[in-house]
Amino acid sequence: MFKLTPLLLALLYGFVLYRFSAWRTAKELDARSTELADPRLKRLTDKMASALDLERIRVNIYEIDPVNGLAAPDGRIFITRGFFRKYQQGEVSAEELASVIAHELGHVALGHSRRRMIDFSGQNAIRLLLVGILGRLLPGIGIWIANAVTSLLAAKLSRQDEYEADAYAAALLAKAGIGIAPQKSLFRKLEALTQSRAGAVPAWLMSHPKTDERIAALDALEARWGTS
Ligand SMILES: [Zn+2]
């Protein structure tokens, strides 16, 4: 029983942290978002909605500048004001923005957005536990190993999520008649933006795997679908 206490405390800490961050995220998003209303984009989200047998897909604008899309733990989809502005200025097409919405829908449908929060607090619990064990077994270096193992695990999980969300988006875009091409062209555009303006890396790219690898994964999907 005594040995279990640190584990229980770590789990409890993780749970409390999860509830708190979910609550804080929802509050922040409520305060700084409005429903996205754009006729051209609505035509595309309506196509995706009917492919999914939904009445409609609600998308919200989150009033911040960094170029990003996100899926809240409660299942709502957000596009940042910064991303929407790129669309209004003609730098990003309606189809390309729809591909971001499809990707975020994938995170919701596959349970990632909810799990990510749990991952985050679960990571802290695992980290604390490993630090406790390894720190005692290997004084000095144990903590370092514990941190490295936890970060590796987290990176691997989130990369997997991104590829899954991309595949979901590709299937949805294909079924809705929008196609996969905008998904790929957006990746390239964001990448170009990164190179032309140092320090202006779109947040949506930073939190995701390498562009080349994502496009290659989509090509592989297309090849598989093409032959089946
Ligand atoms: Zn993603």
UniProtKB/TrEMBL annotation:
<keyword id="KW-0479">Metal-binding</keyword>
<feature type="domain" description="Peptidase M48">
    <location>
        <begin position="37"/>
        <end position="221"/>
    </location>
</feature>
<dbReference type="InterPro" id="IPR001915">
    <property type="entry name" value="Peptidase_M48"/>
</dbReference>
<keyword id="KW-0482">Metalloprotease</keyword>
<keyword id="KW-0862">Zinc</keyword>
<dbReference type="GO" id="GO:0008237">
    <property type="term" value="F:metallopeptidase activity"/>
</dbReference>
<keyword id="KW-0378">Hydrolase</keyword>
<protein>
    <submittedName>
        <fullName>M48 family metalloprotease</fullName>
        <ecNumber>3.4.24.-</ecNumber>
    </submittedName>
</protein>
<dbReference type="Pfam" id="PF01435">
    <property type="entry name" value="Peptidase_M48"/>
</dbReference>
<dbReference type="InterPro" id="IPR051156">
    <property type="entry name" value="Mito/Outer_Membr_Metalloprot"/>
</dbReference>
<comment type="similarity">
    <text>Belongs to the peptidase M48 family.</text>
</comment>
<keyword id="KW-0645">Protease</keyword>
